[in-house]
Amino acid sequence: MPIDQRRINGPDVSIPYYIYSNLNKKSDKIKHDFNIRNDKRSNNEMRKIFLKTGIVSQAKGSAYIELGNTKVVCSVFDPRELSNRNGYCSQGEIYCEFKFAPFSCQKRKIHQQDAEEKQYSLILQRALEPAVCLHEFPNFQVDVYAMVLDNAGSSLAAAIMAASTALANAGVPMFGLVTASTIGIYDNHYLMDPTDTEEVICNTQPDNQDDFNHGIITLASLAQHNQVSEVFLIGSIDTNSIIQATEILTTVNKDICPVLQQCLVKTIMKLHN
Amino acid sequence: MDKNKDIIVCVPGQRLCISDKVNIAGPGTYEQQGYIYSKLAGLVKLVEKENTRTVEVHGITEQSIVPAPGDIVTAMVTIVNQRFCKCSIKCIGDIVLTRPYRGILRKEDVRAIDKDNIQMYKCFRPGDIILARVMPMTEGHTYQLSTAENELGVVIAHSEEGVAMIPINWTQMQCPKTLRKEFRKVAKVIPEHVIADQ
What we know:
Chain B: It is found in: Nucleus, Nucleolus. Chain B: One of its GO terms (molecular function) is RNA binding. Chain B: Its main location: nucleus. Chain B: Keywords: Cytoplasm, Exosome. The structure holds 2 protein chains of 2 kinds. By secondary structure, chain A is of the alpha+beta class. Helix content of chain A is 26%, strand content 26%. Chain A has 4 helices and 10 strands; from the N terminus they run βββββαβαββαββα. Chain A has helices at 115-128, 155-169, 196-202, 239-272; strands at 49-53, 61-67, 70-76, 80-81, 93-100, 140-150, 178-186, 189-192, 214-222, 227-236. In chain A, strands 1, 2, 3, 4, 5 and 6 form a 6-stranded mixed sheet that branches. In chain A, α1 (115-128) crosses α2 (155-169) and α2 runs parallel beside α4. The longest helix of chain A has 34 residues, at 239-272. Chain B is mainly beta. Chain B has 2 domains: 7-57, CATH 2.40.50.100; 69-190, CATH 2.40.50.140. Helix content of chain B is 3%, strand content 42%. Chain B has 1 helix and 16 strands. In chain B, the strands form 4 sheets. Chain B has a 5-stranded mixed β-barrel. Chain B is elongated and about 65 Å long. The two termini of chain B are 41 Å apart. The A-B interface holds A 60-61, 78-83, 85-89, 131, 133, 137, 139-140, 168-171, 173-177, 222, 224-225, 260-261, 264-265, 267-269, 271-272 and B 4, 7, 9, 11-15, 28, 30, 32, 37, 39-43, 59-64, 66, 98-99, 101-102, 137, 139-141.
């Protein structure tokens, strides 16, 4: 690992302690009861959502979302000029940056963006672009920064919802609000809004079965117009399961949309008085 | 509570009404498949006219204002050379911008007469505050400015002593401390109380 000149250098290598905590366990297989989840939810139940706008004073628009224990802060800044561009563009641009805080995951994250965070930044940008009226600010760029404070599963879906609310709070013209949700698939079980433990289970394939259904699907959609803006899939899932999971996610996104609307209406009523 | 009866609050993507000959989509809204939808989170205003009614949505935050052709802007001169000078646009009308935009003022747009004999260093200096009008955009990343009017030009300039100079005619300004005269393209600024009388 190269020495970082801009930070205090700690040890070259450090390994989290929890890797050694299961050494004495006899059974290697993962035990999980799919009929009852660890937090007493049924398989098609979302976690509680808390959403609030206007929490970052320096930003033009901001939003904070809690999805169970997952906590994400999103900031939107003023449209700014693209200084290094010479041609004229009739469309504006959205720049998205997705970042996990170093303390947000079980394994400590570094300060720079790694490959997963860069991928999530592109997914966040693709999810928001169909909803924003880019032709209203030609030749300008809107900056969106999403920071995950606590990653307890479904962080990408929470960041998409927070970014959509922050853009509406900033006064950026939009065709509609974007809602997103995540589903985990393990054999015949569909776990709505998985936690980080359930995400690990759904990403694991049993040793003795080759064509085992497992994976995670995140779907973002404009629920008011029945339009899907982004689908992100990890794992090995057959076609029928994908279709069924997509229908479940679309229905859940439509159910989440009133939460975003009520949060914005509350903000407008507070500012109007 | 009576005030809240007349308030119509909407969020982006919310359907407002049918788009027909009576209901017309105004700013902050868009039409799609025969309906008017909202683009912003804010309050709905209905502007009644003779036979039509315009539906508008006003956002809660102040809009990010982009200069449009024809606007009077306040800018600060940053770089001066023989053919043009570069400016930083600070205000649009009475509204202070949160982020400055870049403008360019060409030699041919400084004044309306005697264009061939203009010398840029006798019209502007770096640090001057000028009033200018935005021209139609030709380059993608810079706003074209023009001061080819009597009311446009330098309004605030500082001398070498750092004192704000006083305009004495339309081409010169004088330092009240050292009485030294400098050349500027001076704006004919009308006092505000005179405007109020008109």
